[in-house]
């Protein structure tokens, strides 16, 4: 067996170049990088040498680069993942939040932060954190609780085992998540005689675990016995490519489908069996079905509290849970009966096992009435009052075609969008709501656009989230990845302000006008976006927004549309209780009343669980 002499950094790059997915595409199609003293001489030189074989993209912030990589993986339904490299110190710790985003959302991400010298001879180097009790610790140990796999490359030959392990995690449907390979700067530059076989092309097949026949029999028995079953479709449906299988299963057996944030677009909104989203920000139709359901069939969902209304939305005391999930950890939550398998394979096996069995569908008028409410909430307003988030959503729905992708993250918009957005095609609804990370939006849109170059990517972002992380708007212009941004200026954190008031509190420190200040905030967002190279304009009405969307679709580069909105209203129709703890003691009568309501909801939930 021959060998080739390369530095550890060169070996890592060469290894990544030859990894392929089952479609033959690069498993790692590119690297995001901000260089510093911990990676510029080692990985920087190796990436420069690789050129277009492993393209390197430069961002403006380490966290947002990782957000772009995460969104790329989500938009490809986990078929590909990007790498991100930074220096040691703040460059590395800036990525910890993004690593948590990937972990919670079960998305593949390869992080390669530089690390301090393995030899320890120059210690302490610039940016080094010294643990007084543990000489093996560096700042990269902060990644341990938010990484699915963590390794420190203390010797060049560690890559021989670490890199295949990393690829396993990135491609494993059950363990999928972020990988962190802490790479000391001296080790990056050390040479080693690598076996040539290490750089042979490798195909990573998408594993589809088949169910245990006993679990199929048990699941089929539960479905036959159920009078009012429902399906909760999660992100696992999309990642498995199980959209058609889900539709065939639901149609064959008359079972209503509801969708989580991650599962939205598993079925077109127009499908008569798609009753919308369940839970806190759910549709009235989905929650009406959930209230009576005696069997809840989760498919690729982890049953997050927004989906379940903090486990109060399923009110039938006879309710049982069946969890179809590739991950056994998620398959047994809250006493669920597990069916551990790939979503597509499991649905096909269940379909066969059920034969001609059909459940009784709820009154279709429930669904029809809900979409009438959606149309009312999203209709253009009369007069010159500040528009609501729902009215902006309606304008975007009318102004974009069915092939467009709506992308959003934290704040009040996800709640409104989950209720109101009509997704027509798979992956047309891209929401980061697992970690609910403000600042994901613009960087995420770049990643989504890179993954889906033929689809228009429309970002909805509030002024609060925009102010947290907007620098990658300049990156989108620089690298030619056009996105459309609708920036809703409600002068602060409107969502949390509403929650604060709903819990009996007074408006405090959320809206800019009521926060402590000397000079009132008055940011010209259109000028700011234009300064970063985007086409930017401010509109004064919903009709002007719709006209501006036409211009944005015709633009040759990123286009930002700013509109002032009302921070107080939200769509009253639909929705369910969400458990947010309210103080037991307060001088405010409003808080005491909110506490009474909170305890009443707790008692009601206890009665059904």
TrEMBL record:
Keyword check for Acetylation: no
Domain Thiamine pyrophosphate enzyme central intervals: 216-350
InterPro entries membership: DHS-like_NAD/FAD-binding_dom, Myo_inos_IolD, THDP-binding, Thiamin_PyroP_enz_cen_dom, Thiamin_PyroP_enz_TPP-bd_dom, TPP_enz, TPP_enzyme_TPP-bd
Name of the protein this chain belongs to: 3D-(3,5/4)-trihydroxycyclohexane-1,2-dione hydrolase
NCBIfam families: myo_inos_iolD
Domain (Thiamine pyrophosphate enzyme N-terminal TPP-binding) ranges: 43-129
GO molecular function, one term: flavin adenine dinucleotide binding
GO biological process, one term: inositol catabolic process
Keywords carried by this UniProt record: Hydrolase, Thiamine pyrophosphate
Any one cellular-component term (Gene Ontology): acetolactate synthase complex
Domain Thiamine pyrophosphate enzyme TPP-binding: 414-562
Annotated family: Belongs to the TPP enzyme family.
Short name of any one Pfam family annotated for the protein: TPP_enzyme_C
């Amino acid at each position: 067996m021959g060998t080739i002499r390369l530095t550890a950094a060169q070996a890592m790059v060469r290894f990544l170049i030859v990894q392929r997915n089952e479609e033959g595409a690069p498993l790692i199609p590119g690297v995001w990088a901000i260089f510093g003293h911990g990676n510029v001489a080692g990985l920087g030189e190796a990436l420069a040498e690789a050129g277009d074989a492993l393209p390197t993209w430069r961002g403006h912030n380490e966290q947002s680069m990782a957000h772009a990589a995460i969104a790329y993986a989500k938009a490809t339904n986990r078929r590909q993942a990007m790498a991100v490299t930074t220096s040691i110190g703040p460059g590395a710790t800036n990525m910890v939040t993004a690593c948590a985003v990937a972990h919670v959302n079960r998305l593949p991400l390869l992080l390669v932060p530089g690390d301090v010298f393995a030899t320890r001879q120059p210690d302490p180097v610039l940016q080094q954190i010294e643990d007084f009790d543990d000489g093996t610790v560096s700042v990269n140990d902060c990644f341990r609780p938010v990484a699915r796999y963590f390794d420190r490359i203390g010797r060049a030959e560690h890559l021989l085992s670490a890199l295949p392990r990393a690829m396993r995690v990135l491609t494993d449907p059950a363990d999928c998540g972020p990988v962190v390979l802490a790479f000391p700067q001296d080790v990056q530059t050390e040479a080693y005689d690598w076996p040539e076989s290490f750089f042979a092309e490798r195909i990573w097949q998408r594993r589809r675990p088949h169910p245990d026949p006993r679990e199929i029999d048990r699941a089929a028995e539960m479905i036959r016995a159920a009078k009012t079953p429902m399906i909760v479709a999660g992100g696992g449906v999309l990642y498995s490519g199980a959209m058609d299988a889900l539709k065939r299963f639901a149609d064959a057996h008359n079972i209503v489908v509801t969708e989580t944030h991650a599962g939205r677009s598993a079925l077109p909104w127009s499908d008569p069996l798609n009753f919308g989203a369940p839970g806190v920000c759910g549709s009235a139709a989905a929650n009406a079905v959930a209230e009576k359901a005696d069997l809840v069939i989760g498919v690729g969902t982890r049953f997050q509290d927004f989906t379940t209304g903090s486990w109060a939305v399923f009110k039938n005391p006879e309710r049982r849970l069946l969890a179809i999930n590739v991950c056994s950890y998620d398959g047994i939550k809250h006493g669920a009966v597990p069916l551990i398998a790939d979503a597509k394979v499991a649905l096909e096996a269940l379909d066969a096992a059920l034969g001609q069995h059909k459940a009784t569908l709820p009154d279709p008028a429930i669904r029809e009435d809900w979409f009438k409410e959606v149309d009312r909430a999203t209709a253009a307003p009369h007069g010159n009052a500040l528009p609501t988030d729902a009215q902006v959503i309606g304008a975007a729905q009318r102004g974009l075609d069915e092939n467009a992708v709506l992308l959003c993250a934290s704040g009040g918009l996800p709640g409104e969008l989950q209720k109101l957005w009509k997704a027509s095609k798979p992956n047309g609804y891209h929401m980061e709501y697992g970690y609910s990370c403000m600042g994901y939006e613009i960087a995420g849109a770049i990643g989504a656009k890179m993954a889906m170059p033929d689809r228009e990517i429309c970002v909805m972002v509030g002024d609060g989230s925009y102010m947290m992380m907007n620098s990658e708007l300049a990156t989108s212009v620089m690298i030619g990845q056009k996105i459309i941004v609708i920036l809703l200026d409600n002068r602060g954190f409107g969502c949390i302000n509403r929650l604060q008031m709903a819990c009996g509190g007074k408006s405090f420190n959320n809206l800019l006008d009521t926060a402590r200040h000397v000079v009132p905030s008055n940011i010209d967002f259109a000028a700011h976006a234009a300064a970063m190279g985007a086409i930017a304009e401010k509109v004064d009405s919903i009709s002007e927004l719709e006209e501006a969307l036409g211009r944005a679709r015709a633009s040759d580069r990123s286009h930002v549309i700013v509109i002032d909105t009302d921070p107080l209203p939200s769509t009253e129709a639909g929705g369910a209780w969400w458990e947010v703890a309210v103080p037991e003691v307060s001088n405010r009568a409003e808080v005491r009343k909110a506490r009474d309501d909170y305890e009443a909801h707790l008692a009601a939930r206890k009665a059904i669980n």
